[in-house]
Structure formats: structure tokens, C-alpha cells
Amino acid sequence: MTTLTAETINSWADDTNGPVALYLKQRLLPVEGEGAVIFPPTYADIGYNIDSLSDGTKVCTIDSVGSQANRMEPIFKDAPNSQLVPQIEIELHSTNGHVEKRSLLDLAHRAADAVVHSSPSLAPQIAKAFKALHQRHNAMPLCCVAPTSLVFGAWDSRGGSGEKLPRLIRSVIRAWDVDVLSGAAQFNSVWKFLMDEQKAELEKEAKAKQTKLSEKGFADAPATFRKVSSSAAKNMPEFKDGSPNPARRVLGGVSARGRIEREVTINLIALRNLKGATDTETCHIHRYLLALTLIAAVSEASLFLRSGCQLQIADPEDNWSLVPRRGAPKCIIFPPDALGGILLTYALEAAKPFNELWPKELSHKFDLREAKRLLAKKEDDASEED
Known about the structure:
By secondary structure, the protein is α+β, with helices and mostly antiparallel strands. It has two domains: 2-176 and 256-384, no CATH class; 179-255, no CATH class. The protein contains 13 helices and 22 strands. Helix 1 (6-14) crosses helix 10 (279-298) and helix 10 runs antiparallel to helix 11 (342-355).
């Protein structure tokens, strides 16, 4: 059993022969109680992401790796964590005095997002940072401008370098041994209360405008089958063998007879593979990024995932495991006040070598002309770009 100290964190960051990962498994429950119906994310044409195992049981993705990363990253927008990373914002547009902005910490693809590449004052900094990483294996420039892109991963598929950054922290929520439920609904309109003349006028107008009365709320509309693309509908009819096709029914959530779990993995190998221009820079990078990663990992996760899917952590304490290169994992104890205590103190100290290197200009503007150029760019252009 290991207790968290600054020396311990330094050893994880510095020791190339040290442990390979930190791992946490959290047992989750619906707020309505065990076995309650929860609603996973839906995907075009396939519905829920469900796999059947060899024993016939089904496992369902409740929150994907990408979605979990996008939920964790914004914790660095608010105090006290906002002291730890540059607070870069991009102005999308301004209308009637209202300025619509987005933080870099909110963008789904982080430093590699299309909005970043369409911001003339920010794009060159990011492109230079990705180029240094790709050509010279130097993570320092990106660490100074967009450190969370190194923590949560990014793929510079639009910027020219093609650099893929593995996530230092990976989190996913799955439900095991699930039963899939179907839903149905019936919308009752005011149609039956309208006069015949009114109905006739509305029917005439709907025909002229090539629309359906039910789509505008003027006719009763049952909801028993979900909409899919025309290509999917060919292989997934609403009725099959004379009965409603379960694959096309409106989705009604899942009930887990097995466990619902959130798994969090911190990849110490990927961390130590990042380098700076010198050994000192490399040490600073490792300690700084590990501090950010630990704060993201220990912060209470937002488990209101979507309408109909609100979860709670079942156990009062988290049990982290330290995974060595060989042999059994060891238990690692995080003090109850670790987030606002040792981890924040450590992170503030680790951030000092980067503070003075952070960009002086934190506000940038999205440029529609640059966005159009990005749309026009061919794949070959992107791959050959300096």
C-alpha cells in the first residue's frame, strides 16, 4: 500500500522503470436504484452501442472514451484549476452586443479542432507546436499553449502534421448484462376539434408546401419506430416476419442486471514518452502533465450524462491501483483532501516553469474565410503542408 506524496508523484513521472499505469474502477448505480432503466447514448442507424458476448450476455457503452474526456477537460476552466493552464478563448461571432465565445477547453478536438485552424492569430502557434512535436519529438511548445491536448489526446488530422497524441487519461462507462427496452409514444393534436373547413385549408396548405401535418403538430402522430437513413431502412424494415422489428422500435433505455462501471486508466508509459528539448524540460513536462492528469482523474466526475441517465458512485471511497511492469497491482491511497491539498499544491509548483511561457494573447477570433479555405483544402494539401 502506497500513500500519495510529492516524492511519490515525482517517481511516477521520472522513473523510466517505474509503474506503467494507475487504474481505478468505480461501481456506479442509477439514482433510481439498482436495475433501474437508464438511457445510453444513441448513434445514427445502430441505436445503442451494444455488443453480445460469447455467453449471450450484452454489454452496453453508457459513456464513451471521447465523451468522458470532453466532460473532464472543462474542470480546468474554473478556479482553482484555472491557474494551471492558459485560458484561451475563441470568439465565434458578435451579434447585437452579444459575443459568442468558446474556450479551447470546450472544443471536442482540442488544439486540433477545426475552429482553431480557422482562427488566424491562433492557428500558426498551434501548427508550430504540432510541427515541433512531429518533427523533433519536442512536446514543450504544445505543453505551453494547449497542455490539456496532451492530457486528453488530440489528432492533428487537419493541420498538416498528422500527429496523433495518445490520451494520458482514459475513462469509459459500461453496463454489463443488459436488457434492451423499447419505447412508444402517442401525440394527440387538436385536429379532432377543428372545423371541417379549417382541416381542409390546412391539408391543402400542407400539400402545397410538401410537408406533413403531423410534423407541424396539426395531426396525431404515433412514435413506435425510430427514424434511420434510407440505406439502413432497406435492411432494417419496421416489420419483420409479420411482427414489429425490435431493431427499428423506438429505444426505451436499458436495464443492467450486471454491474455498471467507470474505468479510469492513467498511462504512465505514454507520459514518459513525451520529451522536451533538454533533460530539464523533459522532467518539467512529465511532472506538469502528470499533475494535470491526476487532478482530472481525482475530480468528481459529472454523472448526469443525459436525460434519463443520472448515476451515482456506489462506494464512499475510490480504490486506486498502481500497476507495475510485472506482478500484481498495489493499492494506492489518495488522502480525502488530495484534490485541494497535495495535488493542487504539487500542480501549482509543477506549472511554474510554464507560466511565463504561456501565450500573452489569450483571445482569438474565428475567421469564416479561413474556415472556407479549410473546407477547400484537399487531403494531399494537408499532408504536404509545412
